[in-house]
Design goal:
The structure is a homodimer.
Chain A: E1 4-16, E2 27-42, E3 48-51, H1 55-75, E4 84-90, H2 100-117, H3 122-137, H4 143-150, E5 153-160, E6 163-169, E7 180-184, H5 192-206, H6 208-230, H7 233-250, H8 258-266, E8 270-273, E9 285-289, H9 293-302, E10 307-310, E11 318-321
Parallel strand pairs in A: 3-4
Antiparallel strand pairs in A: 1-2, 1-11, 2-4, 2-5, 5-6, 7-9, 7-10, 8-9
Helix pairs in contact in A: 1-2, 1-3, 2-3, 2-4, 3-4, 5-6, 6-7
Amino acid sequence: MTQTVIVSAPGKVHLMGEHAVVHGAPALLSAINRRVIVSVTTSQSGLKIQSNIEHALKKQADKLIAESVRVVCERFHISPAPSVLISVNSGIPAGRHLGSSAAVSVATVGALLYFFKKIWNPELINTLAFEVEKIQHGTPSGGDNSACTYGGFIWFRKELDFLKTIWQLPYLVHKNLSPFYLIDTGQPEENTGEMVALVRKFMDELEDNGRLLLFQNEQATKDVATAVKYGNEALLIDAIKRGEKTLEGMGVVSPAILPLIQDIEKAGGAAKILGGGGKRGAVGYVLAYYRDKKKLHDIVKKHGYELESVVLAEEGVRLESGRNK
Amino acid sequence: MTQTVIVSAPGKVHLMGEHAVVHGAPALLSAINRRVIVSVTTSQSGLKIQSNIEHALKKQADKLIAESVRVVCERFHISPAPSVLISVNSGIPAGRHLGSSAAVSVATVGALLYFFKKIWNPELINTLAFEVEKIQHGTPSGGDNSACTYGGFIWFRKELDFLKTIWQLPYLVHKNLSPFYLIDTGQPEENTGEMVALVRKFMDELEDNGRLLLFQNEQATKDVATAVKYGNEALLIDAIKRGEKTLEGMGVVSPAILPLIQDIEKAGGAAKILGGGGKRGAVGYVLAYYRDKKKLHDIVKKHGYELESVVLAEEGVRLESGRNK
């Protein structure tokens, strides 16, 4: 009997609050319509991992998948190492702040849990995927894996070392709003850990001015959450612009992409970096909101990039199939 | 058949975060070992209310109790008005920021729910008691009734107009710490609503300096939560002092009681106002922490007040008896 389990998980964007979340402010995340699909099937020749992750990040992804196996097997005392083939088919560009790593962890853990134990428990998937993320990234906030697991909009705040707030906001994007867009500026030179360390150092130096940046960022995050709920476009654009300004103040918006953001703002829209951002060159994906798609397309084209539509508040981790053959 | 239901609920203190909580910062509340006891029994002559609440606040308490009846009856379509005798026996001094009003609402709602419906559901008690509080107080945060309902330590933050964080922290006061104390400075001239309005006006004027006050208050609240969990006395005293300073900055610590607080600090302890505080004269109760009870007693005596021990993280709303006779 060959058994195959297929599980998918979405990528994520930070609508606002990345970096600030490390310093006690809230983050608003959203699952997006880019998914990673993981299948687990019985193998005749030990643990095998296949993935379509692009070359530069393949080794890292393979390690993530191997760690997912280890964490699940440890949790359920599965020994010796299982003989399974794990295939990862990702539609989330890696290393560009769209949560590819969290999505791979969540989908792999979800598929393994169902493969070995016929358990479908998003709470447990999230907990174990966070374990995997910690091994990989040191001190992740836990926001990414929560967004990939639960889907929708996630309100996240680290209150205390031992207390994190994670709420799924019970709404979608209001129908008054037009679509959001993604713009790929390429893979940043710096990884998120380096950017977090950079901001920490910078915030220490800024002292009270750093605290005021955090305060403004928090207000922007709250306003984005409110604007998306009630379809208040003027507030949304204003809040993204204010939030982006604070990210610039934190030093995570590379000068190379500032002109793109400024052109979108000048036209009457708003755009922001995502996640770690970038210091010098590319910043990964940029999130943009602007009602006139044609005009936005022209601006983006002028800067040498492509425009991609994106749907927010997508479904979280999902069991695609778990049949016995 | 005469049926009698008896329910009790604790009062509360703000360990830190009062006032700041109105502006987005967190509050740390604790249920205390002062309780209100409410009994509901069948009556032959319509709705009757008895209470031992002191004269000046009796009318207000009676209204609170009548509103509790109305809210519960409305929720369960109980009509006509029930013929019950409600007796309130309060061990929580009223009008002094110990949560007397929330405790009365919670215990009365709890007793009525059990009397009419044999339902014991703290979640529902909290929701309905919050309705009662809103009728009485306009825009309460919901922190007080949560502390009186759930007991223990409550971490409370209003994130958005439609999102409140309420966590019960899963620990008691660490055994390394000595007891906390209460000092009754008398009933403040101003009520909490007036004090909240005062701070709001003040914060608007302060602009960035107000935001920094909030930031410091938030840090103090977090440090108190951490210190109480791990029994870090030095951090606890330092955090209460820092938090009290921010409350002074907000204008809610009456000059009349500042010398008391300063004397406790000079001796090596810490003390703070509670809840609304007060602008001119008395501030209601003051919360103090100091290891040497004798010395603290002398300081308090010198200022003409009495020292009372208080136990934190007490049990929340409790069904004392619900027997049929």
